[in-house]
Amino acid sequence: MHNTLSFILAITVLPGLCDASCNSTSFDDLPRAIIPFSWRSKPIEIINKENNAYLCRNYDCRVISHESLASRLPGTFFNITDYSNKSGLRYVPMWSVRLIAGNDSTMRSKRFVYPCSLAATESDGDYCCPTTRYFTCFTSPTAINNVNNQLFNVFALRNSFQCVTYAACCGGGTCSGNGRSCRLEDSMQSLFVWNVVSNTFKFELFQFPASCTCKSN
């Protein structure tokens, strides 16, 4: 458990470890790209094709290679097996996490892995409110909002991704009854994103469920 938590903390504080190569870069500084119209699906999006990331705002598209992103941002992108080995956590697909959160009704016909169905060894065994921890990865460029409802697009590479840890309260422990129950608490984790408002791409912090805490209903 100590190694798992150390790895989670290392990922969480990543922005503070960046050198000059991690500084924000302007969309306008990237070379322009002409891409087939059939690749487009949204006015603002990141498209992964041919080992490149194409950043498009309406009719203006720019390009940066996956190799460039990986070399300037070591320790940011992982394949799922490596992240599982480093963190000691089980993987749950991103679409399953969204379905569990009730944000994607179109996926309800798909089979999904509910975190509480994982082996009991995934729980931290806390006496009061056990926490089941797992991780998920952004396996394709994804639009997400931060706590201030600002829109960002998360980068993903062809075979390696940005991953975040999640938590679920799966029952057990002494916190039950008398007007109390286990509730999820969030923590901040960093992701490398395109800020579509400032037109820069850099690390930003986002909230994700991190632990279970006994609270009054």
Name the descriptors.
217 residues; five-stranded antiparallel sheet; alpha+beta; single chain; 4 helices
Summarize the structure.
By secondary structure, the protein is an alpha+beta fold.
Tell me the layout of helices and strands:
Layout: H1 2-12, E1 25-26, E2 44-49, E3 52-57, E4 60-65, H2 66-72, H3 80-87, E5 90-91, H4 94-100, E6 132-138, E7 142-145, E8 151-154, E9 162-168, E10 180-195, E11 200-216
Parallel strand pairs: 5-6
Antiparallel strand pairs: 1-11, 2-3, 3-4, 6-9, 7-8, 8-10, 10-11
Q: Can you walk through the features of this model?
A:
This protein is α+β, with helices and mostly antiparallel strands and 217 residues long. It has a single domain, classed as Cystine Knot Cytokines, subunit B (Ribbon), CATH 2.10.90.10. It is built from four helices and eleven strands. It has helices spanning 2-12, 66-72, 80-87, 94-100, and strands spanning 25-26, 44-49, 52-57, 60-65, 90-91, 132-138, 142-145, 151-154, 162-168, 180-195, 200-216. The strands form three sheets. The protein has a five-stranded antiparallel β-sheet, with no helix packed on it. A three-stranded antiparallel β-sheet has the order 2-3-4. β2 and β3 form a beta hairpin. 26% of the residues are buried.
